[in-house]
Amino acid sequence: MGRTRLSTAAARRIALAAQGFDRERPAGRADIRHFRRVIDRLGLLQLDFVNVLMPAQFLVLWSRLGSYERKRLERFIYGSGEYTEQWAHEASIVPASSWPLLEFRRRSCAMHKNNPLRKLRNRKAYLNAVLEQVQRDGALTSGDLPPAPGPERNPGDWHRSMPRWALEYHFARGSLAVRDRLPNFQRVYDLPERILPNEHLHRSMSRQDAQRELLQRAAAALGVGTLHDFADYYRMLPREVGPLLQDLVDAGDLSVIEVEGWNDPAYLASTARAPHAIKGASLLSPFDPVVWFRPRAERLFDFHYRIEIYVPAAKRRWGYYVLPFRVGDQIVARVDLKADRQSSRLLVQNAHEEEGADIDECCARLAAELLALKDWLCLDDIHISRKNSFTRKLAATVR
């Protein structure tokens, strides 16, 4: 682009364009071409199966594509050979081409000190037996493995069985990969060589080369950012990958710029697009790359955002499962949503406008988005708790 300085507004538009928000949602129902375009542009979909509304990875695509058939997406992800699950940002769906890029992480994966497998007698024999069963019998879930004695469970503890600990350990190390997900979201594991194309499975890369390519992919997905922004995308240490940024600058993949209001040096991806405007509106998952790195969300949108799922109800400020709401290149509101499947209602448990938002426009756009979301989730109605002037206005608009 030949720029050396960007306004905050221009940086916002570049960031949103890099994430696909410079394109309108498909006129019809989204298909495989659209799924591929979004996942490849983002580089990953973070997995989170909190099902208060819809698991996060499905919401990320809905924000960009609107209505689509979830089962079709799942068949594509797990049946095409183009994608796989890996630890990337967190547990994520990534292109199969990312498998060799994340080998350094699999190699360095160590068993956590609190992992109960550490205390298992004959641990090595048990882990080897798990792999041998997969090799012999094919893809399986934790329920297909023989039990092993685990730690005592205290009342209220979240529980993970020893077979599941074993499978997840092998997954983190790369000895196993994820073939599918069951309707209850349980992983189905198999050997990587039965799932991944050979070209990716056998490609070898040095740690530095892999991290450099991950930085490049992060920069392309973000458009503009700081070292910490890029490093966070694939959960790399800034102090470790910082020196690699200069390689990308020297290669012409990045240029050094200043962004209004940013204290740290910024970098602009050579692939970045700078539209004059970002149109449309969308609710964003709490795990959407636009907002998942909270310091960046504050710099770009002046939007202070924290997930309050684990905050005691009496201490929550905004709500349990709060989604940012974007109109154009601004985040104008936050909405606490729940899909009450028993009563077939989309519940707006609370909502707040952001400072400076045009309330009438915000309510009109949000009402349309809520109606579209209700239909996609196959719910019959929307119920809005009238807790403040904004929710009362929103309820009147929806009605």
Biggest sheet, spatial arrangement of strands = 10-11-12-13-14
Q: What string gives the helices and strands in order?
A: EHHEHHEEHHHEEHHEHHEEEHEEEHEH
Task: Give the beta-strand count.
Answer: 14
**Radius of gyration, taken over Cα atoms and rounded to an integer in Å:** 22 Å
Average predicted confidence as pLDDT: 94
Question: Uncertain regions: pLDDT < 50 for 5+ in a row?
Answer: none
Percent range for β-strand residues: 15-25%
Q: Report the structural category.
A: alpha+beta
Largest sheet: 5 strands, mixed
Sum up the overall morphology in one term.
globular
Please, how many helices?
Answer: 14
Helix content: 25-40%
Distance between the termini: 46 Å
In words, what does this structure look like?
The protein has 399 residues and is of the alpha+beta class. Helices cover 38% and strands 17% of the residues. It is built from 14 helices and 14 strands. The protein has helices spanning 8-18, 32-42, 56-65, 70-79, 103-108, 123-137, 162-173, 198-201, 207-222, 227-233, 238-250, 294-301, 359-376, 389-398, and strands at residues 5-6, 45-46, 83-87, 91-95, 177-181, 187-190, 224-225, 254-259, 266-269, 281-283, 322-327, 330-340, 345-353, 381-384. The strands form four sheets. A five-stranded mixed sheet has the order 10-11-12-13-14. Strand 3 and strand 4 (91-95) form a beta hairpin.
Structural descriptors:
single chain, 399 residues, alpha+beta, five-stranded mixed beta sheet, four-stranded mixed beta sheet, globular
Secondary structure: elements and pairs:
Layout (H helix, E strand, L loop, with lengths): L4 E2 L1 H11 L13 H11 L2 E2 L9 H10 L4 H10 L3 E5 L3 E5 L7 H6 L14 H15 L24 H12 L3 E5 L5 E4 L7 H4 L5 H16 L1 E2 L1 H7 L4 H13 L3 E6 L6 E4 L11 E3 L10 H8 L20 E6 L2 E11 L4 E9 L5 H18 L4 E4 L4 H10 L1
Parallel strand pairs: 1-8, 13-14
Antiparallel strand pairs: 2-4, 3-4, 5-6, 7-9, 8-9, 10-11, 11-12, 12-13
Helix pairs in contact: 6-7, 9-10, 9-11, 10-11, 13-14
